[in-house]
Amino acid sequence: MELIENINRLKKEKNAVILAHNYQIPEVQDIADYVGDSLGLSIQASKTTADVIVFCGVYFMAETAKILSPEKTVLIPDKNAGCPMADMITADQLQKLKAEHPKAKVLCYVNTTAEVKAECDICCTSGNADRVVREAFRPEDEIIFAPDQYLAHYISTQTGRDFISWKGYCPTHVKILPEDIAAKRTLYPGAEVLVHPECPASITSIADKVLSTEGMCRYVQASQANEFIIGTEIGILHRLQKENPGKIFHPVSERASCPNMKLTTLEKVLWSLEEMGFEVTVPPDIMRKARKSLQRMIDYK
Ligand code: CIZ
Ligand code: SF4
User: Which sign does the torsion angle of CA 296, 23, 177, 205 carry?
Assistant: First the structure.
């Protein structure tokens, strides 16, 4: 296909690497050098030898790549690809919350803006939140956990810690309903139900396993089970199917599609390489502060 050939040619010419999130459309995942979750993509961004990173995901992820690789050119093929959850808390709002709890340590989900990351002590992803809470805080620490109330709730059930949590949520994961799980369990009685911790408690409490996207990929490969019902953004089904051709996957709900993740297309990836757009930048002082909390997140990979 000419489009793909052109992408590959420009990628070589510009010494670029293409990083794609697990929720990207199949065609974009297929041309990427690396497909993964925020944590894996952050690690790739921090160690790549490429000059240019084309980041196929949402804005906070591209920003994270820039913060971890400040000397690289980081491009996002569609600058409107935001994350509504990340926009549910501003740096001002977090500052106010910190002022109300002056002794609290601040843990931010990676789904936050660079300005918010600059205000926190440490970041986490859904893949390492449990470990970060267990290992990065003292038992007596009061912890603010923002912005995802459902991830905070789930991690609280796993670690026994209480959090001062923000009322943010993912508009895509809240579309997954208990009745969807019930219906799919009736249709596929032998299948295991894997859901993401961004889902509300009504979902995480009835699933067989609660896992991040990378956690799902690892779990499925190691599992004896042959059939799975997947409760997260539907983009992950492509990777699961590709890596496990002999196994069967059903989405809990086709409605769990993130419109922002679907904005990246092959045409836009090509345009991005041709025009070197849209370049992601972060102000130096924000960059310096946010890097500290992101670096700490990577230490708990
Ligand atoms: O951490 C990520 O990349 C997200 C948003 C989901 C996941 O579980 O991988
Ligand atoms: Fe944000 Fe949810 Fe989309 Fe992930 S799936 S980018 S958390 S809106």
Answer: negative
